[in-house]
Amino acid sequence: MNDTPKHPQRSRRLLIAAVLVTALGAGLAIGVWIKANTITLDDINATVLEPPASLEEFQLTAHTGSPFTLESLKDKWTFMFFGYINCPDICPTTLSTLSKMDKIIVELDPEADSQVVFVSVDPERDTVEKLSRYVPYFDPSYIGVTGNRADINRFTRGLGILHVRAGEEGDADYLVNHSSSILLFNPDGDLRALFSGIPHDAADLADSFLKIVQLSDHG
């Protein structure tokens, strides 16, 4: 009996998709940061890069219509989360958690300067106009980011952010499986830390962030 699959390429794609979904469920990001030295500290609930990892130049678009580039990450700390508007649970929950985190950070350290960036991994549906209505709902200061598919893929691939469309071809109500990690960039625009796993906790994020800032100031 010949056990060779009739559609080996299709079987291979399904296998790759299964591996990706498993990684996505674990909240993994496996890009530029894994090439750097990482440190794990007992009192910081994050993977910290030492030294921070620099990014290549990129060109995306903010929900205001203005360019979003490497310069947009400079001069303040940046929390970056990847998702999409039609996401049923993880994305709105995480954005709400980040909003609560912001309030805690302000209470603990009013001088801490940070921003939150939401990058869409569904650029075909998440237009600038839609992001301009969605992102400010969670906080007026938040920045929604999109771009063409090639630029989004290049950016996420460089950071090791996994995302894969789920559902049949032509399905307008498809879902997108994606990493649940939150990335933290320092004021130089370098990747400093990774918060993985869900659900994220606002108090833990705020506490770890302020300790990372202190670690960076004394580093």
H and E order: HEEEEEHEHEHEEEEH
**Based on DSSP secondary structure assignment, what is the total number of beta strands?**
11
Number of helices: 5
| Shape summary | globular
Radius of gyration: 18 Å
The CATH homologous superfamily corresponds to Glutaredoxin
Order of strands across the main sheet: 1-2-11-10-5-6-7-3-4
Largest sheet: 9 strands, mixed
Please indicate the percent range of residues in DSSP E strands (runs of 2 or more): 15-25%
The CATH class label is Alpha Beta
Q: How far from one another are the termini?
A: 65 Å
Output the CATH topology.
Glutaredoxin
Assign the structural class, choosing from mainly alpha, mainly beta, alpha/beta, alpha+beta, or little secondary structure. alpha+beta
Write the layout of secondary structure elements.
Layout: H1 8-25, E1 38-39, E2 47-53, E3 59-62, E4 67-69, E5 77-83, H2 90-108, E6 114-120, H3 128-138, E7 143-146, H4 149-159, E8 163-166, E9 175-178, E10 182-185, E11 191-195, H5 202-218
Parallel strand pairs: 5-6, 6-7
Antiparallel strand pairs: 1-2, 2-11, 3-4, 3-7, 5-10, 8-9, 10-11
Helix pairs in contact: 2-5
Keywords for this entry:
219 residues; alpha+beta; Glutaredoxin; nine-stranded mixed beta sheet; 5 helices; 35% helix; disordered N terminus
Summarize the structure.
The strands form two sheets. The protein has a nine-stranded mixed β-sheet, covered by helices on one side. It has helices at 8-25, 90-108, 128-138, 149-159, 202-218, and strands at residues 38-39, 47-53, 59-62, 67-69, 77-83, 114-120, 143-146, 163-166, 175-178, 182-185, 191-195.
